[in-house]
UniProtKB/TrEMBL annotation:
Limits of the Ketoreductase domain: 6-199
The UniProt record lists the keyword Cytoplasm: no
Similarity field: Belongs to the short-chain dehydrogenases/reductases (SDR) family.
One Pfam entry name: adh_short
Alphabetic keyword roster: Oxidoreductase
Superkingdom, natural source: Bacteria
The species this protein was found in: Marinobacterium lutimaris
Protein name per its UniProtKB record: NAD(P)-dependent dehydrogenase, short-chain alcohol dehydrogenase family
Gene Ontology molecular function terms on file: oxidoreductase activity
Gene3D superfamilies: NAD(P)-binding Rossmann-like Domain
């Protein structure tokens, strides 16, 4: 896949890994649509990088469908979907106050797993109906999972389950979409320096960085974005999840 002139959808594109991805893909000539609920941030970023900002709640079928249709009107059929929208909340399955509230679990599952599936099913339908390129490729769906899918920490049952589900999907999607020339891949980031981590004290950030085997630092969002671009342009990558974590393995807590 050639990125220059290609229509791209980035969910959660107003901040963190999504913002870095939107910036990098736009710098490579892609026609980027930033899909987010943080419209002020999204519009500011879009104006800066020459993208478009569209409000999108990935967990809502109508909102997602309308956002993709709007992006299609502006840029044409998206050949690359990067699912970066997500988040989590730490709660033990059974804590001091008893069992975790079921809605606390389902909320995280809906945002991370159901939201990514929602966007995937809609964007892939457009890709499948599009004309293939010279190599027979029609598009790429990229899921952002996490190393938490493999080393779930105490208090992270919902996030681990959501990211575990996402980690299982690339091979299934790749098999299902293969006949149409649509690829599916996943990226499992380790501990990255995102706005969420900025809320932690400096000494905590320093300790987290030093815990990484090599290099001894937090991951940079730009490194995640570089991997997104590489996956997009390397058409032999399909059906796999790539860890980007400096060889870290999460401790129990």
């Amino acid at each position: 896949m050639q990125l220059e002139g290609t229509a791209v959808l980035v969910t959660g594109g107003a901040s963190g890994l999504g913002e870095a991805t939107a910036r990098h893909l736009a710098s490579l000539g892609a026609r980027v649509a930033i899909l987010d609920i943080q419209m002020e941030r999204a519009e500011t970023l879009a104006a800066e990088i020459g993208a478009i900002a569209i409000r999108c709640d990935v967990t809502d079928a109508d909102s997602a469908s309308a956002a993709i249709a709007r992006a299609k009107e502006e840029h044409g059929v998206a050949r690359l979907l990067v699912n970066c929208a997500g988040g989590g909340a730490a709660k033990r399955v059974v804590g001091r106050d008893g069992p975790m509230a079921l809605e606390d679990f389902t909320k995280v599952i809906n945002l991370n797993l159901v939201g990514s599936f929602n966007m995937t099913r809609l964007a892939a339908a457009d890709m499948i109906a599009a004309e293939p390129d010279a190599n027979g490729e029609r598009g790429l769906v990229l899921l952002t999972t996490s190393v938490a899918a493999y080393e779930g920490q105490i208090g992270q049952a919902a996030y681990t389950a959501a990211k575990g589900g996402l980690s299982a999907l690339p091979i299934q999607l790749a098999r299902e979409f293969a006949q149409f020339g649509v690829r599916a891949m996943g990226i499992a980031p380790g501990i990255f320096h995102t706005p969420l981590l900025d809320t932690a004290p400096p000494e905590v950030q320093k300790a987290l960085g030093e815990s990484i085997p090599f290099p001894h630092r937090l991951g940079q969002p730009a490194e995640f974005a570089d991997l997104v671009a590489h996956i997009a342009t390397n058409s032999y990558l399909n059906g796999e999840v790539i860890r980007i974590d400096g060889a870290t393995r999460l401790a129990p807590r």
